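Submission checklist for the structure archive. All mandatory fields must be present; incomplete records are returned to the submitter.

[x] Identifier: 3-methyl-2-oxobutanoate dehydrogenase (2-methylpropanoyl-transferring)
[x] Organism: Apiospora aurea
[x] Residue count: 419
[x] Sequence attached
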Amino acid sequence: MTSLYYYHPSSTGVAPASDQSISDNDRRAQCRRINPGRNQRAATKPPSILNTSAQRPSQPPYRLCHHPLLAHSSQAALASTELAPEVRNGTTKRMNLFQAINDALATALTEDENVLVFGEDVAFGGVFRCTMKLAESFGGDRVFNTPLTEQGIMGFAIGAAAEGMRPVAEIQFADYVYPAFDQMVNEAAKFRYRDGACGRSVGGLTVRMPCGGVGHGAMYHSQSPESLFTHIPGLRVVMPRSPLQAKGLLLAAIRSNDPVVFMEPKILYRAAVEQVPSGAYELPLSKAEVLKEGSDVTIISYGQPLYTCNAAMQRAEEDLGVSIELIDLRTLYPWDKETVFNSVKKTGRCMVVHEAMVNAGIGAEVAAVIQENPETFNRLEAPVSRVAGWSIHTPLLYEKFNIPDVSRVYEGIKKLLDY
């Protein structure tokens, strides 16, 4: 697959470029065809944004290379206290998200001979190039293609994990995981409980899958089914927002002794670029990260919508004179309630933003837990709100109107403040 995706933070559109050698002018022209300029979009924006006294900001970059949520220097990448001292004293390398995934897989294969990587087209590098050159480097016995059978991939992975291996199974698109759902729910998630004192488990299992919209994926290449897996005890569910996060969280998932569903926002594979530590490192599972501290509103999100939230927050803080806190859940199940509770007790207002459809989504669970906890409920100044995909199939022509954009998040912030 040679298509590149360029993400525009102020909308949900992307423009495909057939070759990396395309000129910047041609690339901008392609992006404008998918993402019209502000004058062309003006008629579709809510009046509350159109009528602000300040001028609307200029178009942000089409790629996220200079986004404030990304580490653009070695110092920024190595500053995290979550990194081990030897990693913080090391070097970094500029990577996009698929390269960071590749680096994590190569690291895992190097350090543990029990790690296997397999899936449809994996030996060729995969449709998103996440497994490029791994088969050449580690051999066909450890990195290999499978038939086009998701239930077969998962059944094989569960059996391998039960025998002590650490399989990393790739489902080519999250949209096609459903034939494997029975294996994941009734075998992988229940294996340790069912085996009891006999001691076997499939804790070495990691399942990778690209998810989410890209602007033209329609019904069968745009789904975000993460909430389905968060209903299953025995599985961890993880979604990274950036290359640095992806490498650390994937290594933690592979090394952990729990089955992990690792979901990768495919629109960020090439769009998100930052400095990534060169050494092997883990980031903690089931631990959220406060990306920006604030005092008036808490916004909770994960994956691609974090960039949309950040853009909306910046404008809301400028227009409304408020301070907004942004939290990346990172692990969607079991999720970090303590970090969320502490933030909501401080701000008294909370919004959850995600790309998946709103009904029975992550936002519903987070909102319910916040409102069931006496300390956070008594502190609320407004009901917990959700900004998410509509309860529809992803439409081809109107995909960008289904996924939350900056204007919807901005309006949600205003409603919380006006309540």
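[x] Structure attached
Curator remark: Confidence is low (pLDDT under 50) at residues 1-62. Residues 4-63+287-418 form a domain with the Rossmann fold fold (CATH 3.40.50.920).
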